[in-house]
Amino acid sequence: MNLQDYYMTAELHEPPMFKNREFAIIKKSLQSPKNPAGIRRHLQFDNIQKLRAYLIAHSPDHVYFSTAKYENPKGYPMDVKKEGWMGSDLIFDIDDDHLSVPTIQEATFHFVMLKKVLVETFGLKDIMYTFSGSRGYHAHVRDESVQLLNNNERGQIVEYIAELGICIDEPVTADIARIIRLPGSIHGKTGKQCRIINPI
């Protein structure tokens, strides 16, 4: 796939408080002894058009954005950035490689159970569901009630979900400073699009 051509017209997701989000990319050409993952973080864009221009220019293998909002998304190191923390979405990640039966069908089963808990038990309403482009699904909870939960409080939610037998990637949910794959971007390993989906 020609990523430059793809990002010229791709329907990229524009998260709320766009200017306050950190963006990151991974690209093989950025790999070095000091940066073996080839990641470039602490990027900030004023609008979706500027992000698009950056992706066209750099054609990254993976594109991420922060679950958190910051006063200064370009701040570095992270301790400095976190001083201007403005809240974080609550993220759930279900991948089939974390499951005892590592299939997309099993991931879908856990995802359906998760959705039921988020909506019917927790009463959450502002949720975006996505297919990751690879092994599973993400749920982005944006209700105001979750934004200022700290790591420990998010960890308690993780424990509750685990007790119900729903297998999530626990560190993703507990972390207030996580970056997550951007819907509309291409997963560099599979060539598939991370995309927003209707609840299953």
Q: Could you explain how this protein is built, in words?
A:
Helices cover 30% and strands 22% of the residues. By secondary structure, the chain is of the alpha+beta class. The chain has 2 domains: 3-85 and 178-184, Alpha-Beta Complex (DNA primase, PRIM domain); 87-174, no CATH class. The strands form 3 sheets. It has a 4-stranded antiparallel sheet with strand order 2-1-3-9, with no helix packed on it. Helix 1 packs antiparallel against helix 2 (48-58).
Number of strands: 10
CATH superfamily of the largest domain: DNA primase, PRIM domain
Please tally the helical runs, counting DSSP H or I stretches of 4 or more residues.
6
Q: Please identify the structural class as seen in this structure.
A: alpha+beta
How helix-rich are the residues, as a percent range? 25-40%
Mean of residue pLDDT?
96
Q: Mind telling me which CATH architecture of the largest domain this is?
A: Alpha-Beta Complex
CATH class bucket of the largest domain: Alpha Beta
**Whole-number count of domains:** 2
- Stretches with pLDDT under 50, minimum 5 residues: none
Question: CA-to-CA gap between the ends?
Answer: 29 Å
Report the sheet with the most strands, covering strand number, pairing sense and barrel closure: 4 strands, antiparallel
Order of helices and strands: HEEHEEHEEHEEHHEE
Net shape:
globular
Question: Can you give keywords for this protein?
Answer:
200 residues; DNA primase, PRIM domain; 22% strand; alpha+beta; 2 domains; 4-stranded antiparallel sheet; globular; 10 strands; 6 helices; single chain
